[in-house]
Amino acid sequence: MNDDCCRSLPVPGGTFFRNYDGVDYLSRNYQATVSAFHLDRYEITVGRLRAFIDAGMGTREHPPDAGDGSHPEIVDSGWKIAWNEALSVDTAALKAALKCNPDNPTWTDMPEGNENKAVECLDWYTAFAFCAWDGGRLPTEAEWHFAASGGSEQRYYPWSRPAKSTIVDDSYAVFSNGGPIGMQVVGSKSPRGDSRWGHSDLAGNAWEWTLDSAQGPYPVPCHDCAALNESRYRTFRGGSHFEIAAALRSADRHVFYPEAHFFIGARCARNP
40 near 270, Cβ under 8 Å? Predict the structure, then answer.
């Protein structure tokens, strides 16, 4: 990778339909509007997370402050003190959790060549804490979906041109196109697989946490909205290197417990 791993790109505000791509997802029941924001070009890498951990962050001893990482237009969207107990008890425990994939962990306790690969086994709370520490926040699910869909273009995949194009192969994304691939250096499929506004790996490589909890249908009306109820589940998007092509669709949605799991990482959003 020859680019700055920490670069963030602007995404203009706009209106689109969630759960719609004009091919497989045909519902127009969930219109959403998002304000302009910035979204990191790349997923959080091992090297970026290492700086966070080396600073002693991501543990119960050094949690975010209350309200950190909040969305400027969404009330009560920042860090909550009650979440402190969900963080790792100490740095050793955090490093151990990042090795939840026993076969081929991306994280290594010392730099060993994976620093520019997307980090996995990143639980939702640590992802939130990292983005807040890094001067950003987790994107809302609507923001993430807007960026992947190319806004009102409603792209089938982030790279789809025309928008309803279902063309996909391993020149566009890191996914299981017939066999295991493993986590790759971020941006390895750029520019061919980039989204409308230049973001890499919005489909494939690592799944990506969003701010939202999972509470059934998308909230409506939605103008800079997020589902903030204390559900047992959080939403993540984008597919991973382990998934088939269907999981890479911009409108595809998944939920899981907010704990460390194979192939799940994140990328940060930022206020303009």
Answer: yes
Rounded distance, CA 191 to CA 198, Å? 8
Number of helical H runs and strand E runs in the chain: 4, 10
Location of structure tokens 């519902």: 27
What CATH number does the domain located at 9-272 have?
A: 3.90.1580.10
Residue 212 neighbours by CB under 8 Å, 6+ apart: 140, 141, 226, 227, 228, 234, 235
For 158-185, write each residue's pLDDT tens digit.
999 999 999 999 999 999 977 668 899 9
Asked if 195 contacts 4 with a C-beta cutoff of 8 angstroms, the reply is no
User: For 95, left (φ over 0), alpha (ψ -120 to 50), or beta?
Assistant: alpha
The pTM (predicted TM-score) of the whole model is 0.96
Indicate the burial class of 51 (C-beta count within 10 angstroms; 0-12, 13-18, 19 or more): middle
CA distance 127 to 131: 6
Q: What are the distances in angstroms from CA 23 to CA 160, 164, 239?
A: 12, 7, 18
**CA count, 13 A, side-chain hemisphere, 182:** 9
Domain ranges for the chain, please list them: 9-272
Closest CA to 197 of 235, 249, 153: 153
pLDDT digits (tens, 9 = 90+) for 110-134: 999 999 999 999 999 999 999 999 9
Task: Report CA Rg, the chain.
Answer: 17
Rounded to 10 degrees, the C-alpha dihedral 129/130/131/134 comes to 120
